[in-house]
Amino acid sequence: MKVVRALWGSTHPGPTLVVTGLALALGIAVGLDAGRLVLLTLAVFAGQLSIGLSNDAIDAPRDRAVGRTDKPIARGDVSERVAWGAAIGALAAALVFSAPLGFGMLAAHALFLASAWAYNAGLKATPFSIVPFLVSFGIFPSLATLALPDPRIAAAWGWIAGAALGAAVHLTNVLPDLEDDRRTGVRGLPHRIGARASAVLAAGGILAGAVAVLVGSSGGMLGSVPLLGWVFFAGVVLVAVATAVLALVRPPTRTLFRLVMLAALLLAAQLVATGGAVAA
Q: Can you tell me whether residue 228 is helix, strand or coil?
């Protein structure tokens, strides 16, 4: 049980569950039947497990060097070899769950995962560290639409909303670790532009995602947006404002990343409330 707990702690449980919840919400929004919805959710969950585990397995030497006692692999609660085995197993499971949903879904999910693993493997330390987040989260809405019996690529505004959210996730996730990262040679985009600029850009990404969902799902006819859709939009706007204000008045903390995760859930709820036109 200790090993299982250590492996779960190495998957970045919070983001893993949020992204899985997003997939579930998108599947409901596009009208997937129960069987396809379960497969989509399991595929995304397994994929997120693989991303988190591979990230911590790769980073274990760096985490030890800076004394990251919050990381189970760095603490020695589970070996890197076991973690790598679990990561590869989860990756295989993600593709196995994706396959029955069609070649398009399988290919899109494989690209999503390849982009995320590329970030873990080295892109995180380059000026292009944001690119995997733009690619993976841009693709993300299409995982649900390609899982339909009549598969299709998500509407353009879905790509925009996903990429904007992905940018916000990246720009806030690394903020508390900027100094530790610099000490171990990691200098991604947020490290180069600074904590405050990263957080303000993240707030802009949150807002851009909300606007894309609001305008795109209604076809530009804002009068047709249901009241609940406006409520969730307002919630995302408040989260964006809170993110920007906190970034300007306080040193960066994990709170900014938690706010972005909250915005992700509100965006998913907004999409469901506005009718799920992402499949159009």
A: helix
Instruction: Name the burial class of residue 95, with classes exposed (0-12), middle (13-18) and buried (19+) by CB atoms within 10 angstroms of its CB.
Output: middle
State in Å, rounded, how far the first CA of the chain is from the last one: 45
86-113 average pLDDT score: 98
Task: Give the domain ranges of the chain.
Answer: 1-103+116-122, 155-280
**What's the half-sphere exposure (Cβ side, CA atoms, 13 Å) at 135?**
18
Is 6 exposed, middle or buried (CB count within 10 Å of its CB: 0-12, 13-18, 19+)?
A: buried
Query: From CA 29, how far away is CA 23, in angstroms rounded?
Result: 10
Other C-beta atoms closer than 10 Å to the C-beta of 221 total 8
- Could you tell me if 165 and 157 are in contact, meaning their C-beta atoms sit under 8 angstroms apart? no
Token pair 């949903």 is found at: 101
Q: What is the pLDDT of residues 149-194, one digit of tens each?
A: 999 999 998 899 889 988 988 888 777 666 666 777 778 888 888 8
CA 83, CA 257: separation in Å to the nearest integer?
Answer: 25
Q: What is the pTM of this model?
A: 0.89
Say if residue 245's pLDDT is above 90: no
